[in-house]
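Example with several molecule types.
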Amino acid sequence: MDIQSCVEVRNEWDIVSARQLGRNMAKELGFGNVDQARITTAISELARNIYLYAGRGKICIEPIDQLGRKGLRIVALDNGPGIREIRKVMEDGYTTSGGLGAGLPGVKRLMDEFSIESTVDVGTEISATKWLR
Amino acid sequence: MRIPILKLHEYLLITIQVEMDDQTALQFQEDLLNKIHDTGAKGVVIDLTSVDMIDSFIAKVLGDVVRMSKLMGAQVVLTGIQPAVAITLIDLGISMREVSTALDLEQGLDKLRLELEG
Amino acid sequence: MGVQEKLDNLIVQMINENQETLKNNWLKEVKLFKEKELVGTTLKFSEETDQQFFSMLIKHINFHDISKDGTLDDFFDQVLHTGLPLSYLTQGLQAARRVVLNLLVETENDKEKVAAVYREIDRWLDPILNRVVENSSQIWERTVSVQKTALLELSAPLIPVFKNISVMPLIGSIDTERAKLIMENLLNGVIKYRSEVVLIDITGVPVVDTMVAHHIIQAADAVRLLGSTCILVGIRPEIAQTIVSLGIDLSLFPTKSTLQKGMENALEITNQQLISNK
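Resulting structure tokens for the full complex:
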């Protein structure tokens, strides 16, 4: 059950592989189709952030079971430049890449739990969990 | 990978049936604008019935396509957005209010006809 | 003094004299199933509570009749409400029976007597066991009925009224959970009935604050993404006042004061007409 699957993110196609993996795992765990879409989209946003800002990194997805409560956890890891102003990137509409600025605050809304740790010049680790309802 | 664009009188019809990666999305944007230019199409229907996920990047490309087409004189209607996709977009904070929508391809064409022919 | 009474006294005496030993033996037994029983719950059933449980049992063996004192009921009620599995309590009771009997067999040589005491202890513990099961099932029945009511409150039905026109009447307060359900029902219904127009009737929503308005705006936005139009109806004067004074912008969506006016609007949009036969 507790098998973690990871996808290396180095190019745009890896973003597609990461979200396909996420969708399959979400489906297997019994998530409904709205939550499947939420999880897939969150993975896509996180993977794209890695590709855009860190160049490379990985997305790990694992089913979790906390005292009978089942869920899926996504961890996005990179050794990129880190995020200088975490509060700013969590604001809607803030973007440094010309995107919609929906990424991270959007992921937070799509998922149930969200945490971010980042050290400048060391890297970023973002963890997001969706619980099975 | 290329998304086929069909021509029907003065309209263009696109049914997206592949899992879109970033390149495919950008390629589609370019192909559509070229096709509008070549055919002088007045309306475009993009059917998203088979699309099961739209993230902020694809949403941005779609929004851009709509605005760019408009600049070239073509109205765009997005059709068949699935409930799960709509909910995710709203969660992301993307409401695409400036984009015209319809339930399916047929209603999309009706909507274009109504808007263009009055 | 009758034989029966003598027997009772003997048991009570034996139990009282050996309380410490019994308790320690019992706690050992409890440890054996404790971890297994509490897996999958967030409960921490402390040893203190275990000790309380045991002294309750001893006390009631002394009382001989559990109906004489309500404290055992209260105790069961309390721990079952925390979500403690029923089997934890029943196993605790079985363990209590075991340790008492073990002690008895160790200290008493008269086989006749042992058998009599055995039956006697059963007679005392069984009502307690029944009581626990009864309490537990009552708690479940209550929980289920509370949830049923909650479920009804939560329901957000979409009703197809005319061709391509549906109505969702909302009654009661709207929180985030319910807003999600409303959104999903609304969107799935739009697809199912091919609704070009949906009317959300908020006549029955007592309070429209910023959060409720936000949820409604999101629902309307999502409906629009699907290619349908959302009309908000049932806006009472006081709701209009709060919406404006809170600075909520609903101007992007068509709104009407009553369901009837909204329906007229919907018929217009879908190119339909009601014809009177007069």
